[in-house]
Each structure stands twice: as C-alpha cells, then as structure tokens.
Amino acid sequence: MANTNVKEYNPRVSTAKSRLTWLWSEYSVIIAFIIIFIASSIMNPRFLDMNNQLNILMQVSIIGIVALGMTVVMLSGGIDLSVGSVLALVGVITVLALNASGSILVGIFTALVVGSFAGFLNGLMVAKGRIASFIATLGMMAATRSIALYISEGGSVSGEVTGFTAIANNDLWIFDYPVIIFFAMTALVYILMHKTRFGRYVYALGSNEKAAMLSAIRVDRIKIAVYSLAGLLVSVAAIIETSRLNSISSSSSGVQYELDAIAAVIIGGTRMTGGRGKIIGTLFGVLILGILNNMMNLMNVSPYLQGFVKGLIIIIAVVFQKRE
C-alpha cells in the first residue's frame, strides 16, 4: 500500500499567520509610514531637521483637511472630484466678501456657507437626482471653476483686510495654526465617524446600500449630509489657503487637489467601493504623501514626475486592496 504524506495541522503556525494577517490589514498604513520615514532619514540627513518636519506638516495641512471630507464621501461609496474647483470658488467669494464687509468673521462665515452649499448640491444630485457621484461631481468641478474664473476675470483676487493673514501665518509654540486646525479637524471627524450614529450609517451605506435602506436608514439624507460635510471641510481648507497669501488664484488654486486627496484616502486603506476605512488611516496616508513629496524635492526630482509617482501609488494601493 502506497504511503500517503499528510501535512499535520499546526494551530500555533495558523494562529501566528492569522495574527500577522490581521496586523497587516489593520495597521499596514502605519507600518508603511514607519518604513518610509526610516528610509527617508537614511537617504537624506536633512529630512530629520525639525524645520523640515514642521514644513511637511504645514504643506499637508490643506490637502489633509480636504482628504478628511473625501474619506467620508468614499466611505459612503461615492467620490468627489469637485473639491479643488470648489476650493477656488470659495476662496474667490471669501475674499470679495472680506473686502466688501471689512470683517474677518463675515469672510469666514461666507466661506463655510458657500462650500457647504456646493457640497449640498453634490449630495442632492447624487441622492435625489440618482446621478452617479463621478458624473455629478465632475459637472460641479467644471461649473465651480468656471464661475470662479468669471467672477475674478480669470486672475487672482487679493484681500484688503490684513488681519485675515493671521489665520495661516501665526503659530502656537512650534506649530503653525493650519497644522493645529488640521489635527483638530481630524479629531472631530474621527469622533463623528467612529463614535456617532451618523458614522455607523455612513459605513452601512457604503457596505450595502440596499441593506441600509431595509434597515430604515434615511439613505438620501445621509448622502446629502456626507457631501455637505465634505464641502464644509473644503471651505476650511480654502480659508487657510486664502489666508496664507491673502489672495486666491481662480485658475491655479486647488488644481489636482482631488488627485492628492484621493491618493491619501486610498493609501490610508479606505476602499473605493466604500464601507471600509478609517480616519486615522487617512491621516497617515496624508503624511506619507507629504514625506514622499518632501523627499522628491530634497533629491531634486523633477516636479513633472511627482504626479507620476502619486498615480503609481494609487494603483499599487488599489492592487493591494484587491489582494486582501
């Protein structure tokens, strides 16, 4: 009788493998961040300079705030391609309101209203109009950029209230205000998404929309709220960008911000199909992008190739998600 080789089942090996799989699936972005940080430190000693580290945080603060809103949208199973153009429109209208009123509070309030309204329209088209989020926000992207160019006559608009620049150019201890605002927004969105009923509904919607409807979740309201929140966060980013130079360019401000935001969200582990992802993942995804951009600048890599690197990162991240 022929001998049959039977592999013995080893529960310890199986348990160790399952733990490693769980560790990678839950904390892969943090592990990747640590590896990239160490590699960058070895490749260029200037990377670890404190001023350089603070500069990285400052550079990612605007995109980071936009990416938080993009995370919520993508968790719901949608996407928002209009964030960059909405940012430019919000900036233009904010400066005009600021100059007309002479009040910083009026300018900030105007920004929040305009951005939230743009997000509300996106949500309305997706929820009530039954338009695919890609198409709805693509239309909004073209419309808002066009309006911004028309209002500013294709150029830049400068503020006349000098105190407005304090928002982006002052600091607390060693951290600039935009960095503090970014981390504060991250904490608030984290609480909203992981500690409230709204967050649970968004995850349910992204996982299975039909099941969410059968569970008596007001799907249309959640969609509208999701896009409105994304627009509100874009408004915060627009205020910071406008305050930095006390001006906004209708043609160049916000260009390709949607690419950077989507890249950060996907690197952070949020699925394109929705229902799975974490705000903390987006935070580390933003930091990874910031480090990569910084290292390419320190190593004198052509800025024309940086978009190629971001696109490659998105593709690799999606491939890893599919393998999981």
Q: What's the structural blueprint in terms of helices and strands?
A:
Blueprint: H1 11-43, H2 50-75, H3 83-101, H4 104-127, H5 133-151, E1 156-158, H6 166-169, E2 171-172, E3 175-176, H7 177-195, H8 197-207, H9 209-214, H10 219-245, E4 247-249, H11 257-267, H12 279-298, H13 306-323
Antiparallel strand pairs: 1-4, 2-3
Describe the structure.
The protein has helices at residues 11-43, 50-75, 83-101, 104-127, 133-151, 166-169, 177-195, 197-207, 209-214, 219-245, 257-267, 279-298, 306-323, and strands spanning 156-158, 171-172, 175-176, 247-249. The protein is mainly α. The chain has a single domain, classed as ABC transporter involved in vitamin B12 uptake, BtuC (Orthogonal Bundle). The strands form two sheets. Strands 1-4 form a two-stranded antiparallel ribbon. A hairpin with a 2-residue loop joins strand 2 (171-172) and strand 3. The two termini are 42 Å apart.
